[in-house]
Fold each of these.
Amino acid sequence: MNVSKLQKISSKRKVADFVFKALCYISVVLVLFILVALLVGISKDGLPRLNQQFFEGYSSRKPESSGIRAGILGTLWVISITVIASFPIGVAAAIYLEEFADRRSKLYSIIQLNIANLAAVPSIVFGILGLSLFVGILGLGRSILAAGLTMALLILPLIIIVSQEALRAIPTGIRETSLALGATPLQTVFKQTLPNAFPGIITGLILSMSRAIGETAPLIVVGAVAVVFRPPDGLRDKFTVLPIQIFEWSSRPQKEFHENAAAAILVLLATLIILNSIAIVIRARAQKKV
Amino acid sequence: MAIKANSIQAVGRFSPRLNLFRRFESSIKFAFFICAFLSVFITLGITFVLLKETIAFFQRPEITLREFFFTTDWSPTFDNPKFGILPLVNGTLIITIGSLFIATPIGLLTAVFLSQYASTKARNIIKPVLELLAGIPTVVYGYLGLFYVTPGLQVFFPSVEVFNAASGCIVVAIMVLPLITTLCDDAFSAVPRTMAEGALAVGSTKFEVIKNILFRAALSGIAASIILAMSRAIGETMAVTLAAGQSPKMTLNPAESIQTMTAYIVQISKGDTPVGSTSYLTLYAVGFVLFAITMTLNIIAKRLVQKFRILSV
C-alpha cells in the first residue's frame, strides 16, 4: 500500500465519521423542532378561544358558545375516584413487595412479572375490562364511578412500580436501626420507611395522575358521553372528560370546533405541565433534605 | 427488605398483649399482601372477560374461525355482516411498521447524540424535551396528525386523503420516539467505557467505535426498545383513530384511509350497536387479538432486557 491509498482510506473514514455525527445532530434538531412546532401551532389555533366564557360554558351546538366546564368537572370527579381507589392499594402493594415479601419465593416473582406486564397492556384493553366488570357485572352503569374505577385499574401498576422505587431508595440502615431499637416491622414501616419515602411516592402519584388525566381511549369504551349541559350530580351520573371533548371537537367538520379543541388542548397541557413541575419541586426538595 | 420478626416471636409466648399485637401485625401484613395480589387478579380479570366473550362470539352460528382469521372483509355493523379481521390487522401492521420505520433511526441517532456527543448542558435540555413529548396525551397527537401532518402531506402529495395511514404513522412515530431514545440511551450507558476507549486508543474514529462496539454491545437493549415501541404502537388508539380513519381496508397505500384494531374498538364503543349482538361481541374478539399480540411482544422484550442486563454486568 502506498501513502496516497492510505490517505484515501483515512479521508473516507473521516467523511463517514462526519456524516454520522451530522445525522445525529439533525435527529436532535428534528426532535426539538417537533416539540416547538406542536406548541406553537396549537397555541396559534387555541389562544384566541381562551376566554372566561370558554371555561364557564357547557356543550353547545354553536362552537363560539361551547366551553369546557363539563370536561373540567368530569375530569376532577373521575380523577378523584381514581386516586382514592388506586393510591392506598398501590402503596400497600408496594410496601408488601418491598418490605415483607420473600424475594426468593415463586409468588413474589409472579406478582412482579405481572405488574410489569400490566403496565404495558394497551389502555383500551383496560377499558374493555372496566366495561365488563364495573358497567356490566357490578351494575354501575356508564357512570363517573365506573370511569374512575377503570382508570384506577389502569394506573395501579404504575403507582406500585413508582412506590416500590421510592421505598427501595431508603437506606437499609434506617430500617435496621429502627428494628434494633425494638420497633416491630410494621412500626418500622409506618414510622421510618414510609415517611422517608413519602416525597418519592407523592411524586410518583402525581405522574400517574397526569397519565390518567390525559387518557381517552378506556373512557370511550366505558361509555363517556360527548354532550353535557350541566354539572354532574353524583357518582352515578353520566360523564365526559377534557380529552373526550378534545376528541369530539376534533372529529367535527366545522373549523371553529377545531379551534375549541386546540384551546382545550392548551388547558390540558398546561394542567399536565403544572402537575409535573410540582412533582419535580417535591423531588428536588426531598433530595436537598437528604 | 424482608426483615423477619423473630425477636417478637420469642417474647410473644410470654405476654398476651404482645401476642395480640403480633396477630394485629400479621393481619395488616396479610391485607398488604392482598393488595399486591390484586394486580394478578386484574390480569386474570382481563383474560377471563376477553376469553369468555370471545368464546361466546365464536359460538354464534354465523361466525367461523376460518372466516375470522382468513377472509378479508370486515363489516360487522352492516346488514349483511362480514367478519374477516385481516383488514384491521393490516391497518395495525401498516401503522406499526410505518411508525417504527420513522422512529427507530431518529430515536437511535438521538440516543447516540445523548450518550456520545452531547454536553451536560445539551443533555439537560433534551432529556426534559423527551419527557415532555412522552407525557403529551395521545389525543393531542391525533389533533396534530389531522390538522398539521395531513395538510402538510397534501402540499407534496395532492392525492392524500383527509384520513390517511401516513399521517397516523408519523404521529405514532413521534409518540414512540421518546421511548426508543430513552431505552437506547440506557442501553448505551450500560456499555463499559473501557471498551470504547480501547477502540479509540488504537485509532478508530468515533463512528467506528459506535458502529462496531456500542451498537453491538447494546444490541439486545436496542432490540428491546424497538419491540416495546412496537407494542406501544399496536395499542395506540386515539392518534390513529383521529388521523388514520375508520375504513377497514386491505390496502398498502399510505395515502388512503385505513382502520386499526384499536380504532375499531372505539368505533363500536361510540356507536349504537345493541349490547349482546354478534357485532357487539366483535369488540371482545378484536380486543383479545390485540391483548394477545401486545402480551407476546412484552414478554419477548422482557427476555431481551434481561439478556442485556446479564451482558452488561
Amino acid sequence: MQYSHTTGAGIIINAHKKLFDFKLIHWHDKTRIPEMDLLVEFRTDSENNTSVVYIKSSKYQEFSQDSIIKERDFWKTQTDEELEKLEIAVFEGLVEQTYKKTDYAILNNIKPSISVDSFIEYHFENETNIINHANDLPTDGYEILDYRIVARFLMRTLDTLVYAEKRITKDTFSMYLQLYSKLQYYTTAYYKASQDTAKVFSEIFLVQQLYFASAKQKIINLNDDILQNEHKWRNLKSQINILNNRILNHQVKNVAETQSKIDDLSKQMKETNNFIAKLEQTKARIQKLMQLFIAQQKKEFIAKFEIKKAEIFKLIKDAINITITSLDNRIWQLGMQSEPIKNHFFKLQSSFSFCILAFIQQYIKTLDSSKLSDADRLLNIYITRYKERNTKKILLISNDEKMKFKLKIEILSLYKNFMVTSISKKMEYEILITNHKFDFIIMDMNIAENLADMVAFGKSKRLNKNAEFIVYDF
Amino acid sequence: MEEMELEEFLASYKNISETTVITREGEEIFVFTRDIDELLALLESEKCTEK
C-alpha cells in the first residue's frame, strides 16, 4: 500500500498486481493510520471497479518462519476472515496429525509445543519492533518530552508549520506519524484490555498449544466413544430384557437356545461395560494431564507474562516519548529554516523557537491561573519545571531591528530551548534585568554611549550577577 | 580569546577586530565580538555544557 498524508489518498496493489485507489474517508480502522507497505483488507463497490469503498489494516502483518500460515496465503485470500479460517484449518490438520501419532493409552505427560518464553517473545514481536524503531530515532541530547502532557499540542504545531510552509507536507513526517499512531494504539484501554494475562493464557496461549489441542480432541472423541458404547450397552440390556420376558411368558420354543443368546448378550454387555470403564479411565487420565498442563503452564505463564507486559508497557511509554521528542526536534529544525515561519510566527511573537514548547506557552498565556483545570494545572507545572531544567534565557538589546531579528532567528536555530527576549530601550533593559534572570545578555555596541555602565548596572543586580554579557558590533 | 582592560577597550574598540574578553581589574565584564559566528559559538558552548 502507498499513501500520502497530504492528499489523504492512497493506492493498493493486489496479488494480480491490479491497482486500486482509496481515500482516507474509506479508511475504517481506529487502530492504525494508513502507511506504506501495510497489508490491508479492502472492498470495492463493484467487481470491475478499482475505487475502494472500505479499507482497514489486516491483522496479519508479519509472517515469521514459525507461523503456520505464510505471506503467500495472505495474497491468496481476500479477507482476514478467510485467512483466519485457513489458519484454523492448517492448525486443525496439525492437531489431527499429532492426534493420530499419539498413543493416549501410554501418554503420561502433555508437553508444550511452544514454550512460555517463545510464546511471549512472539506475542510481543510487533510491539518490540516498533519500540526498537522508536528508540533508534535521534533526540540530540534534548530532554525527552512527556507525551501525556504535550501530545495535545503536537498537531497544532505540525499543522501551523504545514499550513505556513507550503514546501513542507505532512508526508515529510509520515515516518514519525506512523510510529506515533502505532504506539498510541498500544496506550489505548482497548489494547491494554486485550493483554489481560488470564485472557491471553486461555484464549491464545492454550489454543496454540498443539499437544494440548490434540489431547482436547482426544477427549471429544472419547466422549463420542463413551456415548456410543453406552448406547450399545442400553441396547444390549433392552434385548436381554425382551428375551427374559419372553422366557417368563412362555413365548419361546427353545428356552435353552434363548438362554444361550441371553448369556452371549450379557457377555457383550459386560465387555461393553468394561470398555466404557476403560474409556472413562483414559478420559480421566487425559483430563488430569490437561489440568496438570494448565496448572504448570499457567504458573510460569502468569509470572513471566506479567513481567514482560509491564516491561513492554513501560517501553511503549518511553518509545512514544522519544518519538514525540524526535518529531518535535524535526519540526523545530524545519520550522526555523522556513521563511514563512520566520515572517509570520516570529513577527507576531515568539520568545521561543518553533516547537511544541512555544505553542504550550501561547496556550498558557491565555489561561486564568486561578481557574486552571486539572490538566492545565499539570501542564503548567510540567512546563515550568521543563523550562527550569532546560531553557536558556537570552536578553537581546539593539535598535537595529533587522539585525536583532536575524540574530534572534540564528540563536533560536542553534538550540531548541533557547528563549530570546528582544528589546530596544534602555528603560526596558533596566526593568527586565532587575526582575528577571537571564543566562546571556547580548547588547548591540551602539545601543547607548554609556554601554559599560549598562553592563555594570546589569551585573549589580542579584538575579544577573552571574549572567554572561556579550557585546557585539557587526 | 584575548583579554583587554575596559579602559583600554573604550579608548580603542573601533580598532579591535578579534573577539576579546573585556575585564576590569582582571575580572571579566563582557565579551566583545564583531563576528556573529563567534557570538553563536559562545552560546553553543554554553548549551552543550548544560545538556
